[in-house]
Amino acid sequence: MMTKGTGHERPLDIVILGGGIAGLATAVALRQRTPHHVTVLERAALQGCSNHSRRTVEDDGAPPSETQHLDTDYGIALAPNGSYILGLLGMKDHARELRGIQLNYWALRPASDEEVPASQFPTDPLAPAIFCSRGALIRWLIKAATDESLPGTPVTIESGLGSLKIDIRSAKAGSKSGDLLILADGLTKTGRAAVLANQGLPPEHWEDAYITAPQVAYMGLLPVSALSKHSHLLMDGKLQLQPNGTLMNWTWDPADEEGNVEEDPMRRAAKQQRLILYPISKEHVQLFAYLPSTPELLARFQRGARGGRAAFIRNVSSEEAAHHFAAFAPNVRELLTACPKLDLAQIRDAPTLASWHSNDARAVIIGDAAHAALPHTGQGSSQALEDADALSHLLRPLRAATSTCPEESEILVPQLAAALKTFDSVRLPRAHLTQRIARLFNGCIDPAELQQMDCFDFEEYNVRVMSYRGVEAHLAQNPA
Ligand SMILES: Cc1cc2nc3c(=O)[nH]c(=O)nc-3n(C[C@H](O)[C@H](O)[C@H](O)COP(=O)(O)OP(=O)(O)OC[C@H]3O[C@@H](n4cnc5c(N)ncnc54)[C@H](O)[C@@H]3O)c2cc1C
């Protein structure tokens, strides 16, 4: 808060780089909770937004298209902690508003497809676990950010801008500068590298910003109609996947076949293959098929302009995918060949950090840019929503001076520094826990990280992460 000076104060100008889940959710939360002026700058053209222009293909291997195709985007599982935050931002009926499906059961089966009773997923009407397409969530966020009829100053979203350059010292992205730059640019590492360089970390910390997991994943969308012939997905005469809302997970563990029960659980996990299927709408089912990567598979990901390998290979052959999953029952393997289109994704996460903001408190990284996690715990978007909730709450009381007198305009810096320090203290431990537990389940955590963990149990982890009910409740119980 401005406590001294002329008393002439103004809301902040906040620039957000990246219109993914983290950037847009933060824009919505700031609009609803603060008087600040918010601009989101997105390199791809977003359907429903103005400003279309050239798009640069980056090292993340995003498709060389100028538009994010929200209708054919991949599916995500939104965890209860994330859906609770969406409730705080005004979502009332999650499944309906996201055109998604509520998770009610999960079924873990061996690769042989032997039937095992499904487990019921606990339901809380205020925090349901939801399967939906990422595009449906992006659409909801764009509307909540820009709809003139809703309370608060509408957010300006400029999309289709190509990859923008940033300058942290002037909180500037492209030609737009503000009081604070929120960097929500995902795995592209522009924001992350700039913040870590500003923190004074040597180049090896920010040039190689992400860790490639020893796994790759085939991913595709199946029309629900393609499932009608898969009788193995029927249980009690009902299609378990939809509309009942079941996540199916088939695992092949080579150690079982070798009778190698003594093997270290982490080494075992790293060798497993898994095929996961869940409904994301009344029309589509999302399929992910994970397998250990090999040098040959990794070499197929093209190198981008800056030397990094692309995150995706689009339109791979489904026969090739089915061949890799030869250990699975034929009717499970057939799910891969039933996908009209399959992509191959590299699985990556980010090293944990000591802080997410620049030393001069002019920029902060959020979402995947700050804490990308392996997908195995389905927390990526929920953690991004937690960032949005916490950052907007902490920035609410801040004001800048209208005076151009240097002494007065500097008053904002210590306020920002204090808010971002509290943001770190609330968010880092939670995000780091989800990153580490995902590495643990994936069999690729390094010993130093393992030592920093205070929770190894899946049940305890689930309660700790999924029962979170927003930053206000958290700070009431754990004052900063
Ligand atoms: C295989 C797979 C499965 C997953 N499954 C799940 C799941 O089940 N549940 C879940 O919650 N999460 C899941 N995730 C992760 C989830 O998708 C991410 O955590 C989440 O989308 C992160 O959101 P973000 O906004 O931080 O980043 P992004 O969604 O990557 O958004 C970043 C945005 O910034 C833009 N941008 C980048 N650079 C620039 C620039 N220089 N200038 C302007 N704009 C820029 C990009 O175009 C993009 O729109 C999965 C991910 C993968 C790969």
TrEMBL record:
Residues 13-53 form the FAD dependent oxidoreductase domain. This is FAD/NAD(P)-binding domain-containing protein. InterPro entries: FAD-dep_Monooxygenase_BioMet (IPR050493), FAD-dep_OxRdtase (IPR006076), FAD/NAD-bd_sf (IPR036188). GO terms for molecular function: monooxygenase activity. Keywords: Monooxygenase, Oxidoreductase. Residues 51-70 are annotated as: Disordered. The lineage of its organism: Eukaryota, Fungi, Dikarya, Basidiomycota, Ustilaginomycotina. Coiled coil: none annotated. The keyword Iron-sulfur does not apply. Transmembrane segments: none annotated. It comes from the Eukaryota. Belongs to the paxM FAD-dependent monooxygenase family.
